[in-house]
Amino acid sequence: MKLLSLISLLLVSISFIACDKDEDELPKQLSGIWEERFYVDSVGYWVVNTLEFKSDNEYQFRTTVREVEAGPDLGYRFYYDDSYTWDGETFSYSPDLASWIDHREENFYVPKEELNAGIIDYVRMPTASLVFEANNTKMIFQEICPEDILPCEDPFEVKEYTRAD
Question: N or C, which end of the chain has less CB nearby within 10 Å?
Answer without folding.
Answer: N
